[in-house]
Amino acid sequence: MPGWATVDIERAIGPVLRATATSRDELLGAFAAVVNVDPGSRVVLLEPSTEGPLAAALARHGEGWVAAYLLPMGGSATGELHARGFRLSAAGPGPFGTQRRVVVGRRDGPFILVVDPS
Q1: What is the reported pTM?
Q2: Centroid of chain to Cα 1
Q3: Interatomic CA distance for residues 29 and 21, integer angstroms
């Protein structure tokens, strides 16, 4: 599921889209709103809540696609990622539950977040 960085989450939601209750993404330092774009298609809107990774991404790259949320279909993907040599952050809360950030690439994004299905 894609994550879109914005400086104003209410403006990004607009008057037409439907969004779930705003939550937080602690690993990115962001407020998050899951928006239903059409049946079966959702986007996560992210607005900085701290001077964290999302704020750095916005400062460097501006608004736009910045994250990918991976929602494993049954079972946990973290063991498989570790086995393949990927580094993962500590677990933290996100818009879909507990998640870990895959530590690759630049500190200012793009970001890959793996959601723990349990």
Answers
A1: 0.88
A2: 8
A3: 17
Nearest alpha-carbon partner for 56 in 4, 115, 5, 114: 5
Three-state DSSP class for residue 24: strand
Among the listed residues 95, 6, 100, 15, the one whose alpha carbon sits nearest the alpha carbon of residue 46: 6
Q: Which two tokens stand for residue 98?
A: 């507990």
pLDDT above 70 coverage of the chain, percent: 92
Query: Per-residue pLDDT tens for 22-38?
Result: 789 999 999 999 988 87
Contact (Cβ atoms closer than 8 angstroms) between residue 52 and residue 32:
no
Phi, psi angle pair for 90, to nearest 5°: -65, 155
Q: How far apart are CA 113 and CA 59, in angstroms?
A: 20
